Amino acid sequence: xxxxxxxxxxxxxxxxxxxxxxxxxxxxxxxxxxxxxxxxxxxxxxxxxxxxxxxxxxxxxxxxxxxxxxxxxxxxxxxxxxxxxxxxxxxxxxxxxxxxxxxxxxxxxxxxxxxxxxxxxxxxxxxxxxxxxxxxxxxxxxxxxxxxxxxxxxxxxxxxxxxxxxxxxxxxxxxxxxxxxxxxxxxxxxxxxxxxxxxxxxxxxxxxxxxxxxxxxxxxxxxxxxxxxxxxxxxxxxxxxxxxxxxxxxxxxxxxxxxxxxxxxxxxxxxxxxxxxxxxxxxxxxxxxxxxxxxxxxxxxxxxxxxxxxxxxxxxxxxxxxxxxxxxxxxxxxxxxxxxxxxxxxxxxxxxxxxxxxxxxxxxxxxxxxxxxxxxxxxxxxxxxxxxxxxxxxxxxxxxxxxxxxxxxxxxxxxxxxxxxxxxxxxxxxxxxxxxxxxxxxxxxxxxxxxxxxxxxxxxxxxxxxxxxxxxxxxxxxxxxxxxxxxxxxxxxxxxxxxxxxxxxxxxxxxxxxxxxxxxxxxxxxxxxxxxxxxxxxxxxxxxxxxxxxxxxxxxxxxxxxxxxxxxxxxxxxxxxxxxxxxxxxx
Length: 587
Prior knowledge:
Number of helices: 21
Number of strands: 23
Strand content: 15-25%
Low-confidence stretches: 78-84, 167-173, 500-505, 510-517
Structural class: alpha+beta
Shape: globular
Mean pLDDT: 81
Largest sheet: 8 strands, mixed
CATH class of the largest domain: Mainly Beta
């Protein structure tokens, strides 16, 4: 059977996405496919689906390739024939030969079982493998954090229902090994000493080398932390206060504590991290499109995020199209921003629109799948979004959404707020950022703005904020009174007020400074972190007794004990700073 005949819709959806397959099928139905030509693009079918190419700028499988495959499959008239053919499942020897050195680990993975749905096998760790009928194992489509060959063999054993061997010939090597964690912690300790001595280049090189050596498929979170640290340990960033030495020490301590936790819980996904999300249908949902941003982080990942508010629960869901460090070099967040979402339009065009999802596909962390169907239900007023007007529970909201300690999910939490007072944005030449203080009348927030508000701070009805703490966040979008849709701050400039109106707005604007938050524990943690860095750079100096006494007075017995244990060595200092980072979450 040819590979084209074996490419059912299920196989195509696994290789690309369900939404892309639906768009390609519509192209075929509309008669846009003429031989190998689709809307001016030329498709060259190779020896397999993965080997096929198109002249369009898209990287990987595009809808033009899928459309030609669907056209050729239907023209051959083999789809109905395929459905009636008995399927030849691979035998044990074929699977063993394909597995090679992964055979023992694949057998153990197959013992955990899997769920068979059509041609797809869902494995317990979160992998999926789809088998084209009658095609070799190497053409199976794999998605998930495991190695492809390992997952394909394990899924093949589950799918064929073969009795598994009583014991694997070679015990599988654990993904998270003690030797790897030892090497990571040694590199972190060396980088800590280099930081204390002011040798940032040495610290950066040690961490970058270790990030390349770490087994990314086993600990993507730890490897990402190491890459991010290596990128941020830059003298220019330090001089511009983009990343202070105390922040660098805190980040080193967090990575060291994560490696220590992985020794005890090597299979905890909250600690190891994951490379892909699993989405499941959660029933019909009405959502409002309220924000969009492109981003790049220090570890090298980049992408675009779209924000929608569930009109029933008020929860903000995030749909993200992103690539990891070094993945798909041709991917651009700015280009992805203009992609058509759910067949309705691009992100900027959907701002302020009401969307209906017949069966919203959501991930456990609230992420919204881009490959699904939605319907446009008109415009959306800010009142329908029910933004929070009382901010007293933001700290609890953050802890509930992100978790705490080492199991805290990375990144901020998006929330829709209704501010009562907004100060005039001010540019900080030291950090090269624009900040704006906002308040609900009792609780204040310091927001970082991607660009100015053109004098319209007093006309804000609602803001979408990415909260980093209960007192600090990043402004994503803003709803200005009198406008039908919110503005994406990073991509849509606000209109400038007419002259006399702008002057009148500034004169009449009430200047109400938001109250200061109680930052006692955070201030204590910052002072203790600074002292630990000084002690590392000048061995023999004692830890301040005043700080120890203050920690005890606040009931922080663990922090006080770790302060006393600091003797100038990297281990005690890293343990103390990691504990102080966790305590800082209480503010």
